[in-house]
Amino acid sequence: MLKSIFSSLVLVSSVAFAFDAPEPLKGQIRFAIIGDLTGGERDGVFKVASKGIEQMQPDFIMSIGDLIEGGTEDEAQMNSEWATFQNNLGNKGIPFYPAVGNHDISNAKMRTWYEKTIGPRYYHFVYQNSLFIVMDSEDFTDAFFTDLKVKRNQAIEVYKKDPAQFENTEYAKLSQRYYGEISDNQRDYVIDAIQENPNVRWTFIFMHKPVWQNEQEKNFKAIETELMGRNYTVFNGHVHSYQYTQRLGQDYIQLATSGGKIFEDQLVNMDHIMWVGLSGDKPTYLNIKLDGMRDKKGEIPASGQSLCFDNADCK
Description:
The chain is of the alpha/beta class and about 325 residues long. The chain has 9 helices and 11 strands.
């Protein structure tokens, strides 16, 4: 028996193997997406995500919005909150592409500040023959923002007296609170971007609120009609709960949180990032939970071992 084994080993060792270096993958894309940070951001959690992403070295980082707490008309506070976000992001030169959330633009003054300080509310770019479209789901008129402020203040007073009555207020019943809104101008801009790039291998769309879930909405449905016949993926956030939906034969993915408030009534709570790869004709997706990240020492990055993840009890 022993003789037989050793004979086979000699035979194998006599074969000359050659291992060549791998061929570089043409057109490869690797990017990370961060989830909601607001509603009561938990100190230190997003730093774990940022440090983990830095170690993974994606081509760039995408967002689905709600990067600062917002809800203010004080420009100094806006600047301070954005500086804090940038410090926590600490991306070491990795390009970052923000999306607008309802916390990032809570009123008309914040919208003016955002466009002046951060960048356009909606935009697109092409990378490795793939189209990236970033949308603004808070695309309201100034008049609506003014009315929204009045209704919100009224709802707050109702809540102070009787929290159970909050859901009966006009503010609570606004569809825009849940689904957002996009203007005709934004619709036309996105459709033009799609038409100008007819031969890309994939289209990725990023928005904060799930505009597509509003059955009464027409502008995003016009965009979906324009997308017919091509491959695309839609990403959104806002709900702080993960959800995967297949719609019109395509992937619609709702991210949870990367450090934002976790609500007790949500179905899938997790602090995570999403990793997206594309090296051929179809992307791959992987959700990476923040407490599952480990550095070379086997520890959660950014001293994350002392933090609370994924649970509504986390403060």
